[in-house]
Amino acid sequence: MLRRATWMAAACLLVASLSWAQDSRVEVSATAGWTFGDGVSGPGVVVPGAGTFTGIGPSDGLSWGLRLGIMASKHAEIGFLFNQQPTEIEITGTSTVKLGDESIRNYHGYIGYNLGGAHARVRPYLLVGLGGTQYGTVKASAGGVQRDIIGSTRFSSTAALGVKVFPGPKVGIRLEGRWTPTRVDSDVPGWWCDPYWGCYLTEWYPDQARPSEVKQYSHHFELSGGLILRF
Questions:
Q1: How far apart are CA 164 and CA 77, in angstroms?
Q2: How many other CB atoms are found less than 10 A from the CB of residue 25?
Q3: Helix (H/G/I), strand (E/B), else coil: 22
Q4: pLDDT by residue (tens digit) across 107-155?
Q5: Domains of the chain
Q6: Cβ atoms 134, 151 nearer than 8 A
Q7: Which member of 44, 57, 102, 133 has the lowest number of beta carbons within 10 Å of its beta carbon?
Q8: H or E stretch including 99?
Q9: What is the pTM of this model?
Q10: Distance CA 116, CA 123 (A)
Q11: Alpha-carbon gap, residue 27 to 213, rounded angstroms
Q12: What is the DSSP code (8-state) at residue 208?
């Protein structure tokens, strides 16, 4: 009797594993949305004839992305996402001055957790990821002076909450809110332009032998929706 029960349990496990292996485990997504951009700030810098400026950052705008996810189990997901926001860099203070156009790109590997069963029509999820944020070259123009601010890529993280809705077994819809913070560091005093943000503000403390390191985070928050294809 015990042997028979053992064989029956083994057979059930085998059937379950074969069923899982035949499920669609690869999800490819295309998304579009709106990104709220946040820059960095510091002590006011007076530009004669233009005003006093205390911050620099990207303007809000449309964004789009691509994503590949692999279901490692019924709930766990691993994947990679790419996102791009065509935007403008602007300095803010007593007035707002647009410096030039820029493209901001995200490259993140991620792990996710999906609620509900593998065949559920509605699956809420969360994900966290690590990767890089790339700031494209800006052809800046301010005060009648033009210069190229060379782009660069910096380490960043990302986190998202969302829901997948599957009207059919192979096609679904994704709705998501995603937050991407990127750390800004500098150890040079004054208002400087470099490959990272283009231009940013730092502080000098007289009681120190060297400039203090300023640590800030730029924050991007995207609301998006898109199509999912299962394979």
A1: 13
A2: 17
A3: helix
A4: 999 999 999 998 899 999 999 999 999 988 887 765 566 777 777 788 8
A5: 25-230 (2.40.160.20)
A6: yes
A7: 44
A8: strand 97-114
A9: 0.72
A10: 6
A11: 42
A12: S
Encoding tokens for residue 157?
A: 């993280």
β-sheet bridge partners, residue 101: 88
Task: Judge contact between 139 and 100, C-beta under 8 A.
Answer: yes
Residue pointed to by tokens 């123009």: 141
Q: Tokens standing for 113?
A: 């957790």
